[in-house]
Structures are given as C-alpha cells and as structure tokens.
Amino acid sequence: MAFTLFNTLGRTRQTFEPLQAGKVGFYGCGPTVYNYAHIGNLRAYVLHDILVRALRRAGFEVTHVMNITDVGHLSGDNDEGDDKMVKSAEERGKSVLEIADFYTQAFFNDTGRMNIVRPTVVCKATEHIAEMIALIERIEKNGFTYVAGGNLYFDITKFPSYGEMALLRMDDLKAGARTSVDENKRNPHDFVLWFTKSKFENQALVWDSPWGRGYPGWHIECSAMSMKYLGEQFDIHAGGIDHIPIHHTNEIAQSEAAINPPGDTTGKKPWVRYWLHNEFLVLDKGKMSKSTGGFLTLQSLIDEGYDPLDYRYFLLSGHYRSQLQFSWDSLQGAKNARKSLLDKVHALADKADAPDSAAANSAGAAKYLETFNTAIEDDLSTPRALAELWGLLRDNTVDPAAALAAVFDMDRVLALGLEAALAEKKPAEDENLAREIEGLIAERAAAKKAKDFAKADAIRQGLKERGIILEDGPGGTAWRRL
Ligand code: AMP
Ligand code: ZN
Fold first, then answer.
1. Is any ligand 1 atom within 6 A of the Cβ of residue 242?
2. Where are the beta strands (DSSP E) in 16-120?
3. Cβ partners under 8 Å of residue 47, min gap 6
4. Does the CB atom of residue 243 touch ligand 1 within 6 A?
C-alpha cells in the first residue's frame, strides 16, 4: 500500500516514504489545557487518529507523540496577550497545575468517547523544561539568538528559509508593519525562546536557566519533545491550518537551526518531512475559538442527545482539507446516517453466522475493500471511504459473512464502533429507553416532592405495564426489567 499525502511543505501531493522502512514517527500538536476542547479542536485530533489508524492498518509501526501545553502559551501565538493557563487559573481560583490536570482529563475523556486512540507518548511541557533548555542552548550556540530586555529571542533573519512552508517571503516579513508591541524584537516576526522578564506578575511556573529564572516560549516545547521521542528527524507532523504561519513556521526554524551545523544551508537536514494541516470547523458565525468563549464542547452535543460517534461520523463526511460548516441539522443528518448504518450492520449480522475474514478478500466484498483502501491512501479521503462502506452494505449480492468481515476491517480506520455495536443488542433503542425512563423517574420524584402522589403512582404503574420496575432506595430510584 502506498499513501499519497498532501504536504503543506511544498503544497503538493507526495508519495509517503518513511525515513525507516515500516516505521513512522508522527507528532501532532496537542491541546493547551486551560479549557475544554471545543468541537473544532476535536476535528484536529480526529485527523491524527485517522492517519494513525490508516498507517497501522497498512502495516506501519507508528509512534505517535502528542504534547500537552501546560505552560507558556499566550493568547496570541506571536508572544502577545495573556498567558492562557495563568488567566484561566486566576479566573477559576485554582492553581495552574490543578487547571492543567482537570482539563487534561477532560480532554482524554472527550477523545476516548470519540474513539480516538490515545497517542503512544503523551508529554507535558512542564515535565520537559530541561530538554527545552538543552535545545535552546544548541540554537544559541549555532548563532541564531539574541538577548533583549532580559528575554532570549530567535532572530529570523539568520535563518534564510524562514517561512518557506507558509509561503512567507523574508523581504515582506522584514518590510512588514510592526504587529508586535514587544519593542525588544529586532524584527516583528522574531519570537521568544525563553522569557525571564515576565509580563505577568506572580508567574506561577518558573525555572532556572542559563538566561535567568523564567519560562519557555510556546513553540520550543514541540521541537524539544518531538525530538526527544522521535529523534532529530521524523516523518509526519500535523496540526490545524492556523498553526502554519506562526507556530509551525517557528518550530521548523528553531529545530533546523539546532540540528544543522552553523552556516550550512546547502545540505540542510529537514527536521520533518511531511506536514499535514486540517482545515477549520466553522460555525454559522465563523471561526470557533477557545479564547473568545462561546464555543461548543462534545458534552454540549451529548446534552442535546447526540452520541460522540455521531459527531465523528459528521467529521468523517468531510475531507480534512476542506472547511466544514457545523450545524445542528447536519449533525442530525450524521446521527440518522449512523443509525441506519448500525441497522444495516445488525441486519447483516442476523444473516451471517460469523464474520468471514478469508471471504472478505476473495468474494464480492473485495472490490469494496480495494476502493476503500484506495480512498484512504489517497490523502485520507474519508468521504469516499464512507461511500464505499455504504456501497458494500447496500449490495445484496455480497455474501453476508464476507461483507461483515469487510465492514469490520473498514471500521479499523473509521472507528464508528460498528463491531462493538453488534455486541449490544440494538444499542440505540436501549439508550433511548434508558433516557426515557430516567426522565420519568425525575418526573415522578418531582411529583412526590409536590405531594402529587396520584401522578407519581401513575408513572410507576405506567412503567410496570411496560415491564419496568422502579425500586426506591437511599441513593435514589433505580429501575430494572421485570
Ligand atoms: P489549541 O488547544 O488551541 O492549541 O488547539 C488544538 C488544535 O485544534 C490545533 O491543532 C488547532 O490548530 C486546532 N483547531 C483550533 N481551532 C480549530 C477549528 N475551529 N477547527 C479545526 N481545528 C481547530
Ligand atoms: Zn506544536
């Protein structure tokens, strides 16, 4: 199997060839844990997940590294604004570490519910300060830095290919308007490697360093941690498109400044070979943003009656490089589609004794699997892959056992929980029933509180007639089937 990936570096589709045969080193920028992930952020992690699942299914051994940003990320990616973690901690009256722990857990709770596989390595910025300092020392030794106003800066003019991936031109950057209010910067696009002069009083997290007591700039953590776990050169790096012009541009500059001998621009070793960027999920009102508030979380979709996998289905229905517009109507469409998908899989399972993997590759199912694989290998085209899954499920000529095995094989990438759904009998119906009963229990409790015992009894009796028994106990009311 050969994958073609759209590489932002060079903006072309390229055949994927790993540095080491059969192995893939992949780094995806992780969350800044000062708030819940919004559903736009989750789009980025679903892309990482599809990439990792597809590569593993194709036989690659993938090491997937993800950082947790718990220090140094300012509200503007260009060193401007408030420290996101400190601000959130102050607003909530908690310590920075408490905030980080809480939202890290919430993040993995969300990704778990969306069937996003946990990365091989999850690394926290605050636990890798020594690696960041060591990397900054290399950048400094190679002559790319200057100290101004107590902070250490990266001088972009020393790195001739600065901005190449983002298609920025050095002349434009130098001539550009001063966007930064940091007067210490020689060039507005220079960026901080290490802060000692904090803009924030009582900065909670500071460390000793050769440049004084302080804390790292945001970008350096990704370079330091990816190199620690994947080596100085690795295969794939991913993130949202917002990271192209600043964060990833700076990651490339500082990493390649560190790993290449000073002055050597001809035989320059690239740090990362393939860069993948997901387009944004947008709301009717425009971009969704964590720092400006007013965003939707996975929990808010669940509260409206949607399953996290309905949202996953919705995301897969768009290609990761196309902007996707979120609306409740389209989420409902995804929910309906997933429900009929599950119904079809149930129907297939009723016809087949057991999935027959051998037949999946030989009988009528094979052609669907092949086109499915082609779609996934073609820059991870999940919309086309979903269409193949549907084609297979609608094709009555395919032997059910073979079809079922092929469906499960496809779901190793899509991860819509199809195999797990079979283990439970008609899960959607069960869930609806449970939700309805919980609602009636709450209604009965309210009726009792209001001393409307006739209504409370009627609810209990009504459920009994449907074979549901209510049992009152000290912890509340539980229910069971007769
Ligand atoms: P953050 O936690 O803010 O660092 O963002 C986590 C990831 O989500 C990054 O890869 C961002 O590029 C990505 N991202 C942020 N907003 C959106 C959005 N509306 N749609 C898709 N991806 C996003
Ligand atoms: Zn990063």
1. yes
2. 23-28, 61-68
3. 238, 276, 278, 320, 380
4. yes
Segment 461-465 long-range contacts (CB within 8 Å, at least 24 positions apart): 463/437
Per-residue pLDDT tens for 140-177?
Answer: 999 999 999 989 999 999 999 999 999 998 877 776 66
* pLDDT tens string 97-145: 898 999 999 999 999 999 999 999 999 999 999 999 999 999 999 999 9
Greatest distance between any 2 Cα atoms in the chain: 87
Q: What's the pLDDT score for residue 294?
A: 57
Are the C-beta atoms of residues 65 and 27 closer than 8 Å to each other? yes
CA–CA dist 136, 329 (Å, integer) = 49
Taking all residues of the chain, what is their mean pLDDT, rounded to a whole number?
90
- Contact 106 CB / ligand 1 (< 6 Å): no
CB burial class (10 A; 0-12, 13-18, 19+) of residue 271? Answer: buried
Non-local CB neighbours of 137 within 8 Å, separated by 6+ positions: 210
306 Cα–ligand 2 center, Å: 31
Q: Cα–Cα distance between 467 and 482 in angstroms, integer?
A: 5
Task: Work out the angle between the directed axes of helices 328-351 and 308-316 (0-180°, nearest 10).
Answer: 100
**Smallest-distance ligand from the CA of 29:** 2
Both structure tokens of 72: 């140094």
Model pTM greater than 0.90?
no
Q: How far apart are CA 337 and CA 335, in angstroms?
A: 5
